[in-house]
Amino acid sequence: MQDGATSHTSISTKEYLKKKCNVLKKWPPNSPDLNPIEHLWVFMDKKISDESPKTKNQLVKKCRQVWNNIEWEIIENLCNSMEKRLILTQRNPCETKTNQRNQRNQRNQRNPISYTINNTPKTKSSSQYKEDQWTELKNEVTKRRNKLDNEREEMIERRKQMEERSNKLDNERDEMIQERDEIKKKRTKMENEREEMIQGRKQMEQIRKQMEQVRDKKKEELKQMQRKLFIFDLDSKSLQKLFKNEQDKEKKNSIVQMIFLVGVK
Length: 265
Hints:
The protein has helices spanning 11-20, 36-49, 56-68, 72-87, 97-110, 126-231, 236-242, 246-264. By secondary structure, the protein is mostly helical.
């Protein structure tokens, strides 16, 4: 893994390197100046720079892809480099590997560092202490597992309740839909009946108008008949005086018929 640490160093370190070092060398992969996050950044920078994204969204997408597909060996190497990083200290970035190695060996001889922390009590042995720790861890795991199981059961019960409520609501909704359809049918039926009543009323009005027209016509005809008969109206008493005998009555009837026929014409 080639280290491009010079591409992301600070301005002050670059100036220091220009002043103190005549030749700028490439830093080793496990350089003490880099922390594990910077190592990871160098790796991601190389992967991303191959495609050279132009926009911010493309850069974020590519970073996510690289992070999801990162190899476990890189993380493991970074974790292993932490131990060396705790030992090494940087005095001059231009020193060679041999000088750094010699200084590291001298420091280790003077101040040997042990990274294992022994918290075992004096009354217990290390194996017994480890067993106790393992049992405690098992107990914690079982507690958490039981807690998760209880939560899962609660979630299942809640889901069942929610399903029951949803089914109940669905049934109520179906009933409301049926009632709505029935109301619509009744309303359409009432509207049809109302239209029929309106049409019947219109027909009745037409018939009434026709009856009025016929009545007016009959009135006019009756008036005309009355006018015609008024001229030839004869008093029954005068007729009785004129026609006393039966022969006279026959004449009277014939005269009345003649008058009626003349009036009709």
